[in-house]
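Running this now, will post back.
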Amino acid sequence: MKDTDSTFIGHFPCPSCGSSDAYSEYSDGHGYCFACCKYFPPTDGAPKMESTKKEAKGLIPISELSFSALNARGINKDTCQKLKYYVGEYNGKPCQVACYYDLQGNLVGQKIRFPDKTFSVRGKIGNCLFGSQLWESGKKIVITEGEIDALTVSQLQGNQWPVVSIPNGAQAAKKAIEANLEYLSKFDQIILMFDMDEPGRKAVDECSKVLPAGKAYIANLPCKDPNECLMNGKSKDVISAIWNARLYRPDGIVAGTDLYEKCVTDIDDLKDSVEYPWVALQNKTKGARHGELYVFTSGSGMGKSTILRELEYYFGVRRGELCGIIALEESTRKTGLELMSIHLNRRLILDPEGTDEAGRKESFESTVGIGNFYLYDHFGSLDSSNLLSKLRYMIVSLGCKRIFLDHISIVVSGMDTDEDGGERKAIDKLMTNLRSLVEETQCTMFVVSHLKRPEKKGHEEGGHVSLSQLRGSGSIAQLADMVIGLERNQQGENPNVLTIRVLKNRFSGDTGVSGYLSYNPDTGRLVDIEAGSFEEEPEGKEFF
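Update: finished.
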């Protein structure tokens, strides 16, 4: 019997190279391995191996198909032969046929691709991985989004290393990966090389989360997919992407080795602190920095809003920075007039006729009208989600890097706090969101918070401020970078002297009394004074 008289029996593991499905055996005993290209002469006519494989019904007979180079895609014939990617006809139309095998090596389905890029499926592909019959285990396996990309990656690696493709594109990638977890777990590195578009990136994220911990790697390409890289002369980039694939880590987990630039070269932000307009506050705090949340707190009527307004003027006018202001206990008009008053050193609200229209116009154009202030026109409570959207708009869309919120308690008052611990929970949520916003946008946020009434000496009588007195929740102290308390004895000998007490200082740890400010009722200004000079009404020294 001649070789030409024999009939094909099936695919088997190669006795020479060990390939799981590349060895073809015929009825006279001769065989050929398409992996190692070795010919095995006929024996006595008895087949060497006994077929146990089952072939799905309704498939295009392999005998009607052939291997051919895919010139339009830069894929050679050997690669197609290796991965069982055929050409032929179906229903009288030319087509390409990708053969799918199950994990037992049975041919279970065919994906038929026509020139107009439409598809048809014969058999049951299910969640089988294209090319999986060739590889049982190994160091690395590359997973692509389509068969052509799998052919490309295989060819660029000399058809020697494991590569497979998901069957149904990015939308069904996770499902296919989940169905093949046992198989994929036999490889040390599972490299996801999906398309560099939005669906592909989303699929990478979804699949990375279900793969065994420490095995998922992500490859990035300069073009949309591996075949596009091949056709654009960037074959080396595909190989580099495999070897430089980064280990998937859940969001928020960063390797210490990745912090070199932040810790060694990019340190300008550590020096990027802005001095406060008062020596009393500057000495303890070492200035205000981007990406930090500052809380000012005191009893009622102690000067929290006043100190914030001085800072608004300082940053917006003196430093020329964009500022966002949400003052929920006053109208935008009052905020504007108070900023103008600082410029004039005269409280316009108390003495509106003390300055003529020309003077008011000049002060407006020098403060509120210079274009550095954005205010939220709202009086009263503001729900948390709406507040955050306003703040995000100010920061991201308008470019405000200094944010002033006066105050937290009134925001919470507009929320449902009837349940047990409602106010505490509401403040917890609000502070967490504010902290996240500050971290994300790297703005500087100044926030006013109220205190609980002390059991003994009241704050209006000069009682000391402590972190435990912050109203509503410990999250204010926990999430703030700095908490600054203001103390004033409104009934004492020096009712206009404010003690500045730093209650928390995450930057340097330096806390305690930092100094004293004097409030001038006529001008509405806060100025530095020296300790020990309270017997006589101190004149103070203007910073500006």
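Residues 221 and 241 are 6 Å apart (CA to CA). More later if anyone needs it.
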